[in-house]
Amino acid sequence: MIVASVGVFGTLASAVITQVLTQRAESRRSERGERVRIAEQQAAEDQRKIDQLRSCYVQLNANDRYYRDAMLAYAHALKSGSVDAEAAEVNTARRAQRDTRAEAQLMASDAVLQIESRVNAQLTTAYRHLMEVAGEPDSPTCQERLNRVIELLKSLTAQQGHVRAVMRLEVRATAELPDWYDPEIGPTAHRHDGH
Questions:
Q1: What Rg do the C-alpha atoms of the chain give, in angstroms?
Q2: Contacts (Cβ under 8 Å, ≥6 apart) of 76
Q3: What is residue 164's three-state secondary structure?
Q4: Interatomic CA distance for residues 90 and 68, integer angstroms
Q5: Which of 181, 149, 184 minimizes the C-alpha distance to 68?
Q6: DSSP string, the chain
Q7: Spatial CA neighbour of 90 closest among 77, 100, 80, 81
Q8: Half-sphere exposure of 98 (CA within 13 A, CB side)
Q9: Integer Cα distance of 70 and 156 in angstroms
Q10: Cα–Cα distance measured from residue 73 to residue 92, given in angstroms and rounded to the nearest whole number
Q11: Is there a contact between 98 and 66 (Cβ–Cβ < 8 Å)?
């Protein structure tokens, strides 16, 4: 009787223990699956943000360069006396750059905005001087002012390179800033932190 009772009890206990262990294993599997699903969702969201930022940065970089190049072409045209098409191109480039900057101000990091704002300030200064010179009659003073505008616009190439370096870091196109990066031009101590 005792042996039969122990056997029945053992059989019942074994079934209960097996069921409990199965439920625990299933619960752990479900928790692991949920953690994987959450991690995949987070990775997809991070990638979506990086893709949006990349698109914004591509447009900002392209339109800053377009604006600078259009003003440079206009300055050279003013020097030679042929300005018809270049004036319209400057206005088109200026509008495109302004619209892109408006989007970037909502999406770009503080580090990118800090450097790009310096570029934009110089583009604005060059535009103002260029428009002043465009309204003046040709003279040696006018030619000298155009030379200064041209030099200002050419000097932006290095700063635009620094903006691109930080942009590339932030969209994970590179893991570190290039050796030529100068913290005096760009923000200090900017490192890739995964954001």
A1: 31
A2: 150
A3: helix
A4: 9
A5: 149
A6: -HHHHHHHHHHHHHHHHHHHHHHHHHHHHHHHHHHHHHHHHHHHHHHHHHHHHHHHHHHHHHHHHHHHHHHHHHHHHHHHT--HHHHHHHHHHHHHHHHHHHHHHHHS-HHHHHHHHHHHHHHHHHHHHHHHHHTSPP-HHHHHHHHHHHHHHHHHHHHHHHHHHHHHHHTTS-SS--TT--TTTS-TT------
A7: 77
A8: 8
A9: 13
A10: 13
A11: no
- Torsion-angle region of 191 (φ positive above 0: left; ψ -120 to 50: alpha; else: beta): beta
Do 97 and 66 meet the contact criterion of CB atoms below 8 Å apart? yes
* Six-digit token string for 130: 């260029």
- Between the two ends of the chain, the Cα-to-Cα distance in Å is 71
The amino acid sitting at 13 is A
CA–CA gap between residue 33 and residue 36 (Å, rounded): 5
Instruction: Walk along the chain (195 residues) and give the pLDDT tens digit of each residue.
Output: 665 665 667 677 777 788 888 888 888 988 999 999 999 999 999 999 999 999 999 999 999 999 999 999 999 999 887 767 788 899 999 999 999 999 999 999 999 999 999 999 999 999 999 999 988 887 888 899 999 999 999 999 999 999 999 999 999 999 999 999 887 775 543 333 333
Within 10 angstroms of residue 152's Cβ, the number of other Cβ atoms is: 19
Length of the chain: 195
